[in-house]
Design brief:
single chain, 22% strand, binds guanosine-5'-triphosphate, binds magnesium ion, cell cycle, GTP-binding, magnesium, nucleotide-binding
Length: 195
């Protein structure tokens, strides 16, 4: 995918700040530190446009990025980060829940899980909840560079089983370090938006 423009638009704290131009939106969800912002930077070919950090909990708002004037990526705060205060957690929860259940522009979500680990309870709950309310999900296993290629299948098998993916459900392997999976994910996005 050739990137002709990639722009940070807004860190939204609520619906009043969401864009109003009706472009399709794709939300990135997953545990803190799983690599959502890094994946976005790789997809957009813009190092550092989405802020990344070794410290989990970096992203705390819905961060909108417009790509090629054709879609928005919405970078979500990570879930499952214990150190944030309860009240902040509650606020995030509400904002995310209402975005996911009400936002008409949302076309599907990309749910990230770390290829090295079995999905957490939060991962499973998130996947099930999205399925329940009817939001299509593409699962991406991140940090593919952290394990040998020969072990990918073994790890993705566990992820598939625990999330109860059907054989036809998409699971892609990604690495923000090597660019592994970038072309496949763009192909998947285009297919879902335009076919
Ligand atoms: P929050 O904003 O806290 O929810 O985290 P996030 O999911 O946006 O994670 P982020 O992209 O900030 O990445 C967290 C850490 O993992 C950073 O140190 C990244 O450099 C590292 N990381 C992310 N993706 C990869 C990857 O594919 N491979 C490797 N080796 N490291 C990665
Ligand atoms: Mg982030």
């Amino acid at each position: 995918m050739k990137i002709t423009s990639a722009e940070f638009i807004i860190s939204a704290v609520g619906p009043a700040q969401y864009p109003t131009d009706g472009l399709p939106e794709i939300a990135l969800v997953g545990r803190s530190n799983v690599g959502k912002s890094s994946l976005l930077n790789k997809m957009m070919n813009r190092k550092g446009l989405a802020r990344t950090s070794q410290k989990p909990g970096k992203t705390q708002t819905l961060n909108y990025f417009q790509v090629n004037k054709m879609l928005y990526f919405v970078d979500f705060p990570g879930y499952g980060y214990a150190k944030v205060s309860k009240s902040i957690k509650g606020q995030w929860g509400k904002m995310i829940e209402s975005y996911l259940s009400k936002r008409e522009e949302l076309r599907f979500i990309i749910q990230l899980v770390d290829i090295r680990h079995a999905p957490s309870k939060d991962d499973i709950a998130m996947y099930e909840w999205c399925k329940e309310i009817g939001i299509p999900t593409v699962v991406v296993a991140t940090k593919g560079d952290k394990i040998a290629r020969g072990r990918w299948l073994q790890h993705t098998k566990i992820i598939r089983e625990q999330l109860k993916l059907r054989p036809t459900d998409t699971l892609l392997i990604f690495s923000s370090e090597t660019g592994q999976g970038r072309d496949e994910l763009w192909a998947e996005i285009k297919r879902r938006l335009y076919e």
